[in-house]
């Protein structure tokens, strides 16, 4: 088909759209919705992927966690829940392993319902609700490379003396002190008085919107935490190693150390779990896999509905233009020319729907970015538009074939 003929065909298709605005609009509505769905969901998923990647990076790619059972992407069994707890001494033994840079055994307070952050922190008449209490060693700042907004973190001397000091999360400090510097001030927690020595900087959050629970925390030396809640001894051990290439070696050495310390028989499986930040990535990949299936299903239904509408309108168009087709054939137009003409008209119709869907979907994705992690992807925009054109080709072939195979004599007699 010549370029001039192509331009003429596209112009005719656009003229048909303008002449029958309502009919054309209803015809391409499914295409618009399908393309819009692809762009919105893909933008949200891309934004969430970026946020999760940022969170994993903030936790540290060279960080390994050790607990008595796996907690990421696994439903603990009764056997796992009844395993004996890891100890402070287990964590100290890990510090002696080669390639290990820092180790911190941590504890958190949970109420009887198992929900974090139900403690009130008081300063004078002000009360901050829902604060999570966490006990750590001074090494926690090295493991997670924590940043402070004000003051300092507690040190080894504070841990040894079980000093009544606390480092507040940024939301906790703002809720109690506002614009006032809280360093050196005393707060009351669980009926005990603690001196604020530092304030944490804002923590990264995987999913935007609302307050980050990690910013409403109170960090204590682990020995001080024991004075508040001596009944909590279920340690979560975080370990940082020197180089990513040594990860497998460190995990093997950890496994050997813990099996020996926990007296696990040779033929028995591990009664503890070793996992890293890559576990979060794998879990998120599994979740997004389901979201992409949902994306595919929703957009496919809308695009198929739009495709059926396009086929219907093209069949109507063929019927309405039977005499025109007969005239064109009578003056020498070949079947291939008629086939290409009507196929291109169907593709143009769907392409217009694709463009409208891209514009609306992109606008919604940009608005969502103000409230929720959302990242527009040029790849998915191109893919969505390509799919809309593909639908035009797929569903336009039959009407075009029907037009190309009309008998010119019968077509000229058509009334």
What does this protein look like?
With about 425 residues, this protein is of the alpha+beta class. Helices cover about 55% and strands about 15% of the residues. It is built from 14 helices and eleven strands. The protein has helices spanning about 5-20, 20-60, 80, 90-95, 140-145, 155-160, 170-175, 220-230, 245-260, 280-320, 320-330, 335-370, 380-405, 410-415; strands spanning about 65, 100-110, 120-125, 125-135, 150, 165-170, 185-190, 190-200, 215-220, 235-240, 275. A six-stranded mixed barrel has the order 3-4-9-6-8-7. A hairpin with a 2-residue loop joins strand 7 (about 185-190) and strand 8. Helix 1 packs across helix 12 (about 335-370), helix 2 runs antiparallel to helix 10 (about 280-320) and helix 2 (about 20-60) crosses helix 12 (about 335-370). The radius of gyration is 33 Å and the shape is elongated. The chain starts with a helix and ends with a helix. It comes from Tunturiibacter gelidiferens. This is ABC transport system permease protein.
